[in-house]
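Task: sequence in, structure out. Protein: NADP-dependent oxidoreductase domain-containing protein.
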Amino acid sequence: MSSKIPTVKMHNGIEIPIIGLGTATNLENPNVEELKAAFRAAIDAGYRAFDTAAAYQNEHIIGEFLEELFKEGKVKRSDIFITTKVWPTEFRPMNVEKSIKSSLEKLRLDYIDLFLLHGPTPVKVKSFLNFL
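Result:
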């Protein structure tokens, strides 16, 4: 299924959709069915970029839904652009890789298209790490 959403081609040849769906919801009690309905409506509307984060506590829900979509043949993994983020408490170098692996497992994916630092802090790294 092709997308109606325009993309921007990066210098490395990867195309990123210019519009995506953010998936932050009620963090204390996410409504699974509501999130899946919003995700399905976005897919049906042509969205192919989705933003999540470990802090949203919904990567496992998105992973279930992506797995369903792929099994249905509605979209392929290569059609979807997934962004997720590492939370500041995990910014220490030894924790970033663990955070990526955890997100991959929860999202049920082999790769993440874009992995960001959630809320980077404009301070010297050493002083920030001491704060953590």
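The chain has a mean pLDDT of 87.
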